[in-house]
Amino acid sequence: MKQLVILSGKGGTGKTTVASALIRLSKTKAYADCDVDAPNLHLLNHQKDKPEVNDFYGLKKARINPDKCIGCGLCVQHCAFNAIESGDVYKVNETICEGCELCVAVCPVDAIEMHDFVSGKTITYQNDHVFATAELSIGAGNTGLLVTEVKNNMKNASSEDTEWAILDGSPGIGCPVIASMSGVDRVLIVTEPSVFAIHDMERIIETADHFGVKTDICINKADIHPEMTEKIKTFAQDKGLECLGEIPYDDNVIHAQNQGKSIIDYPSPAKDAVTQVYQRLAIRMQNG
Ligand code: SF4
Ligand code: SF4
Q1: Is 69 touching ligand 2 by the criterion CB < 6 Å?
Q2: pLDDT, tens digit, for every residue of 27-69?
Q3: Complete domains list, the chain, with CATH
Q4: pTM of the full structure
């Protein structure tokens, strides 16, 4: 199964709108929402059946046994994340603890133990297609680990004849994006004509190059700043990337979203443009 991940470099470019449309147009049998901090692909791709839901355990967290603690304060002094509160009793703030285990090493009376911590939940729908998603708990870290778990769930639940999977990647450029991109075959960057666009794209392209992943772009709301759109196209060309299409600003996108629908449900200029992006992408996907 080959995988396409859709990335944006930052939020608000219309990444999920485009991902949702490509999922519908391609009729792919497997897709996933890797934006585990704020998943919303399910709002545009409704599921009828009940999903399988499982707790996700990230890194372990420290816990202090008050019966053993002698109040020496060594753990507080050594915790680089200020995760240990000292008051009447010494206590670990689990939302801040990074699980480094240094406090366990310095405690003179073995009063601290690491324990499993539920950082979120994975949600997998499986019927005529597979949709894997997840929700990270508020304040929980380990986003990259959860993204990897979502991708594994999608892959494991998919049938062998699934040719392509589409992943709605995480915004930004940190650990979850690297986890989104790891092992995929192609990246589509959804950008928009803003002053940050080229900078954001550069960082994704660097990461994609590192992983040896082929990259294309499309420009959303391309008509709101034509000069910047031209700059982006020139930049992409210089980098050897193809611009697969320019999607115009279109109020129908907002109407569709407000009704929990995909843009392809609305005859509109944006639908025509994203369909053209899909057609070009499909040829590239078929050719590997
Ligand atoms: S495990 Fe590390 S981060 Fe967590 S409380 Fe101990 S020293 Fe601090
Ligand atoms: S290092 Fe151990 S004994 Fe000292 S305050 Fe921390 S938990 Fe208590």
Answers
A1: yes
A2: 999 999 998 888 888 887 888 889 999 999 988 999 999 999 9
A3: 2-57+121-286 (3.40.50.300), 61-116 (3.30.70.20)
A4: 0.87
